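From the pipeline queue, job 12 of 40. The input is one protein chain; the requested action is below.

Action: predict structure.
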Amino acid sequence: MAQQHEEFLAVGARVVTVVHDSLEHAQTYLERHPVPFPCLTDPEGTVYDLYQVESKVISLGQRPGMFIIDREGIVRFAYIGWQQWEIPANEKVLEVCRGLGCGS
């Protein structure tokens, strides 16, 4: 998403990531791999629990989740995968944002 961040902004979408990790680990990672959007930490897994993104042994750790939430806080698109490579492609996410009129 970092590579297409401007395209997300152009359709009125704002990207925010939440990582199930400590602030220290996230900062170390982001120093080496900066992203142009906010990255929040969730060391206790509170947000992950709220959105039912559970860690499973079969997924070798934390399962990937992606959500599109409108300005009213309603989840308009939800995806929870088993492996990191299963996350929908950026173009698919942009298509959903356009269809929802994120820029409206």
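Job complete. The first strand starts at residue 17 and ends at 19.
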